[in-house]
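User: tokens in, sequence out, please.
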């Protein structure tokens, strides 16, 4: 649940912050010239479709990164907990090599995810650039043909297209954030929903009888010589 709130919070904030200026900008552009606005907004559906497919790719790669990170953590935990066994059988070098392989695999999967995310942002900027090109070319043709547009209107459209850059870019960023959080939440749910292999079939509650007594109990660590308990009494 914590992961969901951490991703939903920024997502809601950025959607609200960008929805109003985005809608207002589109409304003003339509009032100036509907035909030019349609041509300028042609790349946006392509961007929406691209966001959908790229988000799925990011989700899959994020899941692989989370799984590999889990493998590294498990390997490290097993190595530390069984360090005496590793030393007894002389398996330290093999354990280090296995850890290096796991780390390299994690690095490769993380780099694949970063490459996908890094290509996404320039692609959005490219589509915004196409909108600017359409504005200059088609708007210029309409001015030459005397369709009621002026060079000032073309300059306005260029400014408006640039204002659309941040809402679209934030949409991609929020999508990436949600996909990575969803992958993390999936891994957490796998742990939370894991059922115990040991189950009580009769569900009976037996009263606890008897008592425990410690009398003159002493304990000293063999490796350090530190005495933890000395003549401990408990009734």
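Assistant: Sequence out:
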């Amino acid at each position: 649940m914590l992961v969901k709130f951490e991703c939903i919070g920024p997502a809601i904030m950025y959607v609200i912050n960008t929805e109003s200026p985005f809608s207002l900008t589109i409304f003003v552009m339509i009032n100036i010239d509907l035909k030019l606005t349609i041509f300028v907004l042609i790349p946006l559906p392509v961007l929406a479709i691209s966001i959908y497919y790229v988000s799925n790719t990011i989700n899959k790669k994020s899941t692989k990164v989370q799984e590999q990170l889990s493998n590294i953590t498990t390997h490290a935990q097993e190595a530390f907990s069984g360090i005496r066994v590793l030393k007894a059988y002389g398996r330290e070098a093999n354990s280090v090599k296995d850890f290096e392989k796991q780390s390299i695999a994690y690095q490769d999967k993380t780099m694949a995810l970063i490459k996908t995310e890094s290509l996404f942002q320039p692609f959005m900027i490219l589509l915004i650039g196409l909108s600017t090109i359409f504005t200059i070319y088609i708007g210029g043709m309409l001015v030459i043909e005397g369709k009621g547009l002026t060079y000032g209107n073309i300059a306005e459209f260029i400014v408006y297209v640039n204002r659309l850059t941040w809402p679209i870019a934030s949409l991609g960023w929020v999508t990436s954030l949600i996909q990575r959080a969803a992958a993390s939440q999936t891994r957490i749910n796998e742990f939370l929903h894991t059922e115990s292999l040991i189950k009580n079939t009769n569900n009976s509650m037996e009263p606890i009888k008897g008592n425990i007594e410690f009398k003159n109990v002493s304990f000293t660590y063999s490796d350090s010589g530190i005495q933890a308990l000395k003549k401990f009494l408990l009734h």
